[in-house]
């Protein structure tokens, strides 16, 4: 049993999965698409990863505004959640992702990753941070 973490963006989806003991999150890949509205291939790739990694639950980053309101990006994430649930049949948990992209950027800076290379990895690292936060919060539950 593994849990998948997703960082859903307008043109990319960062993907991470837990280890079988649900202790750590590892980055898997970044799924890229040409247009925000073209999600069929994205959903198909997520389905393939679910099967390959034996995923039983999905944690989807939920980008609430800093004042706890639901903005346009959060509404699009809710729509994506519904598509994921319909397509996969798995439980999809929305998880507060505020500041994970900033945290991912800071981690890459500390690791010495060059500025021009950071964009390649930020979504995958954000997915790892979202999933790790969920794993830490639900450990032993």
Overview of the molecule:
The chain is of the alpha/beta class. It has a single domain, classed as YqgF/RNase H-like domain (Nucleotidyltransferase, domain 5, 2-Layer Sandwich), CATH 3.30.420.140. The protein is built from four helices and five strands. The protein has helices spanning 40-53, 72-88, 100-110, 115-138; strands at residues 2-8, 12-18, 25-32, 55-62, 91-96. A five-stranded mixed sheet has the order 3-2-1-4-5, with helices on both faces. Helix 3 crosses helix 4. The protein is globular, with a radius of gyration of 14 Å. The mean pLDDT is 89.
Give structural attributes.
141 residues; alpha/beta; 4 helices; 47% helix
For the record, give the distance between the C-alpha atoms at the N and C termini, rounded to a whole number: 15 Å
How would you describe the oligomerization state of the chains in this entry?
A: single chain
- Rg (CA only): 14 Å
Count of domain modules = 1
Regarding CATH, which class?
Answer: Alpha Beta
| Mean pLDDT value | 89
- CATH-derived architecture: 2-Layer Sandwich
How much of the sequence lies in strands comes to: 25-35%
Low-confidence stretches: none
Figure out the total of helices.
4
Gross morphology is globular
CATH superfamily: YqgF/RNase H-like domain
Number of strands: 5
The class by helix and strand makeup works out as: alpha/beta
> What fold name stands as the CATH topology?
Nucleotidyltransferase, domain 5
Give me the strand/helix succession.
EEEHEHEHH
Share of helical residues: 40-55%
Strand order of the largest sheet: 3-2-1-4-5
């Amino acid at each position: 049993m593994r849990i998948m973490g997703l960082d859903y963006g307008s043109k990319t989806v960062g993907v991470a999965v837990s280890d079988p003991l649900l202790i750590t999150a590892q980055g898997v890949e970044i799924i890229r698409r040409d247009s925000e509205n073209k999600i069929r291939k994205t959903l198909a790739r997520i389905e393939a990863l679910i099967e390959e990694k034996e995923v039983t639950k999905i944690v989807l980053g939920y980008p609430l505004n800093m004042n706890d309101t639901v903005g346009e990006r959060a509404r699009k994430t809710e729509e994506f959640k519904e598509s994921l649930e319909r397509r996969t049949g798995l439980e999809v948990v929305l998880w507060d992702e505020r500041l994970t992209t900033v945290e991912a950027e800071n981690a890459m800076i500390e690791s010495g990753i060059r500025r021009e290379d950071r964009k390649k990895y930020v979504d995958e690292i954000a997915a790892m941070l979202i999933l790790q936060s969920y794993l830490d919060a639900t450990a032993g539950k």
